[in-house]
């Protein structure tokens, strides 16, 4: 009896334990399915399906004339899911698919068929068929046998990516930029668009297959940005700079061309030499990021300060003392042996006398150097421009309170040593002088558009404070014109169009070794009614070939100015005063007016410089075959003849 009770007790205990276990299991099932059911469903779903971000197409980047600078091109990777295809469909269409793949992609049909069959045997759900197809090929390949059945029946997988292409190639590559640099980086907020989403299924470790060809959330393409760059001027600037870099075996250089009244950057070229090579390419945006000692181009700033403070006038005379003046333990030299004797301030600027400028600034500010520095600060030379393009270099203007301010700092500042500015910062100052003292902020963008809808407009120039009085600006303009006509820039003087500017030659990295120079020229053209300002800076030319700003940098400026001068009058209906009358025939004006009105009458170009004639004829829509490089002595189409677009003409020049 006792044994029976003991057995019964054990049975109850076991039964109770089983009830508790089942109750626990029931609770857990309830908790999993009801209380936290959604959580676990989401986890399970995410392990099999996941939404992936789809990058939108970036907006197009255009130049000022709507030529493409950068555009997004869709590319497609094609893969094959060998598992989802039925055996019947595979046997029916695999051979035909291999045939079409062979025709489109090259290679043999047998190779493709073996690839498809092997994928079928090993149950590969993600075998690569083709990479980076363009859209037209993608459309074709998805209609191939088997693939045309879609992702589930035909195993067709297409993965889209976007590639950014630059139609200009290497020209302006750094200006256009990529990632967060250049125009691409500066206006990313407009260009980037909004991401979409696409649902994919996990088919193997690290492999995800799109569920369908339709996105769950469609990406929104970015806006189009119309920049201020003119590809024609960019092309001229690039090749003029490249030619000079190669000629003087320089390390690197930059050119910037800016429209005077608007501040629009029309061209910006930055070329650096590949190490241990003679090749140059767009390495860094030197014009924006690289501060350097400007040398004699800073004399414009020194002269502006002295004139504004009225400590001198253009007629104030300075003794250059045989080309050498000593300040404390250091000596200042002029480039001309024996100096220039006693010369006016205006003449000192024209011939770029270091001794005269050192005396001009030191003698008038030595008792109160802060007055000179404050004047430079008031002209904004110690501040960044505030460009949209990232990476603008920090300007440096020493102050008397600096720990490294010495007795020689002031005279050396007068001719551009001890200060640092970027090329674009220097150009902005010169451009202000061309604008009678009114400073205009450089800009790289004109409009933002969503296809044909205007989103933002940046047409109006951003005017900043005047850097000096109009009276001072006019005096500086006259001096810069004289530099080109009779001074250090006279080697680029052209009687047919006027230019104004300043040469600059400065030693650089002199703490490493002597013989390293920065050669520069900055100015504007035409001199009387400035339309464009331009700066050319070339670093470390071979001194055995040449290093002065007049011989290294100024010719680049002149080539750019000449090319723009030749083209601009045609676009602006060729102002008569811009036509070099000594080249034109007496009847040319009548022919020109008629041809511009109807563009069907051939002008007489006998006596014209060959390149001027080519530019005129190309603007009339003709195809030119030029023989020789001098002046035109014969043309195959007689003057007064009717001409048509794309008609060929032969020019023979001396």
UniProtKB/TrEMBL annotation:
Residues 596-654 form the PASTA domain. It comes from the Bacteria. PROSITE patterns: PASTA. Keywords: Carboxypeptidase, Cell cycle, Cell division, Hydrolase, Membrane, Protease, Transmembrane, Transmembrane helix. GO terms for cellular component: plasma membrane. Coiled coil: none annotated. GO terms for biological process: cell division; cell wall organization. It is found in: Membrane. GO terms for molecular function: carboxypeptidase activity; penicillin binding. The chain crosses the membrane at residues 12-30. InterPro entries: Beta-lactam/transpept, Beta-lactam/transpept-like, PASTA_dom, PBP_dimer, PBP_dimer_sf, PCN-bd_Tpept. PANTHER family: PEPTIDOGLYCAN D,D-TRANSPEPTIDASE, PEPTIDOGLYCAN D,D-TRANSPEPTIDASE FTSI. This is Cell division protein/peptidoglycan transpeptidase FtsI.
